[in-house]
Recover the amino acids of this structure.
């Protein structure tokens, strides 16, 4: 279940005429988890005098059968505004940023072909900037056996030893990647091993369209309170049963099951955690995620128009401005 912003709902003013948009323009609505991005997107879509469709930039909401734990848009929200890239792949299917970029480009092209305005909505910073900065992501298929080998090495020898292996093969990538980020180190080693070449740096390039970004800013304590309340709502809405069903249909050996909320709910399924402890651990993990997301969406980033997350009217007005004014 998704919380609504505490201030007054958007006033349904007469729709203003938008200035002529470029043929290929989008507005990104970004911010940390529980900041109210979907609420703002729905309200803005209802206000704009334009055909608006939402493209999700959430690495977990792409998964089917995982609606509760990922806080996916509700049926009512998806009925109010067309959504793309929500519940499109199986819980245990490989799906990397290069796949998301391909699917997103297809969705954007279809929206623009219909004369519409895409709203890119999500908190997965890697997805958002990969698209907006035009990253050239290596199209290397995942090799799960190879990844398992590197992960086992890290478990046995430690993160620094794994990072040293990357440094020996691709010093530039090693310099860019924190040794503590084992997942990124493993992916870099996977790419280098399978291609025999260094991982190309993810340098900004022209993405081929214009864009503006609106960020939802919250005081940290208030955001934590919203996130904590949402975690309780997820467990009350049936997160444990959703997790039990995932295990019954797909087993336990897929990465999405170890993500925030599902990992803790699985502890309840196994009788290891009480509900209160599972909720507490999920809240702590969510706070950690919020801190990580702040490194992707920085308050001093001049590309983002930050507005108070608890002022829905101001947020919708910012989206309206962003729709009118493409980046040169």
């Amino acid at each position: 279940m998704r919380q609504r912003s505490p201030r007054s709902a958007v006033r349904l003013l007469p729709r203003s005429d938008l200035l002529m948009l470029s043929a290929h323009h989008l507005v990104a609505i970004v911010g940390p988890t529980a900041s109210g991005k979907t609420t703002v997107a729905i309200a803005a879509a209802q206000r704009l005098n334009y055909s608006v469709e939402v493209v999700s930039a959430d690495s977990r909401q792409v998964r089917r059968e995982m609606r509760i734990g990922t806080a996916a848009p509700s049926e009512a929200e998806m009925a109010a505004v067309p959504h793309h890239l929500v519940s499109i792949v199986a819980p245990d299917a490989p799906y990397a940023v290069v796949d998301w970029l391909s699917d997103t480009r297809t969705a954007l092209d279809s929206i623009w072909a219909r004369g519409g305005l895409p709203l890119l909505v999500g908190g997965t910073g890697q997805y958002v900037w990969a698209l907006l900065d035009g990253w050239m992501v290596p199209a290397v298929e995942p090799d799960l056996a190879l990844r398992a080998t590197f992960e086992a090495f890290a478990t046995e020898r430690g993160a620094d030893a794994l990072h040293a292996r990357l440094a020996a093969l691709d010093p530039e990538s090693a310099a860019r990647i924190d040794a503590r980020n084992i997942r990124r180190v493993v992916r870099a080693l996977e790419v280098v091993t399978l291609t025999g070449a260094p991982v190309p740096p993810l340098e900004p390039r022209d993405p081929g369209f214009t864009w503006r970004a609106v960020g939802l800013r919250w005081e940290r304590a208030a955001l934590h309170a919203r996130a904590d309340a949402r975690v309780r709502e997820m467990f009350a809405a049936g997160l444990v049963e959703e997790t039990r069903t995932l295990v019954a249909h797909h087993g336990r050996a897929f990465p999405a099951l170890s993500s925030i909320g599902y990992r803790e709910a699985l502890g309840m399924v196994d009788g290891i955690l009480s509900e209160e402890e599972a909720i507490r651990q999920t809240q702590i993990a969510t706070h950690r995620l919020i801190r990580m997301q702040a490194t992707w969406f920085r308050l001093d980033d001049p590309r983002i128009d930050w507005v108070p997350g608890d002022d829905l009217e101001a947020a919708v007005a910012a989206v309206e401005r962003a729709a009118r004014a493409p980046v040169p």
User: Anything to note?
Assistant: The beta strands are 25-30, 52-56, 83-84, 117-121, 210-217, 304-308. Residues 1-20 have pLDDT under 50 and may be disordered. The chain has three domains: 25-137+203-218+296-324, 144-195, 223-291. DSSP finds 13 helices and six strands in the chain.
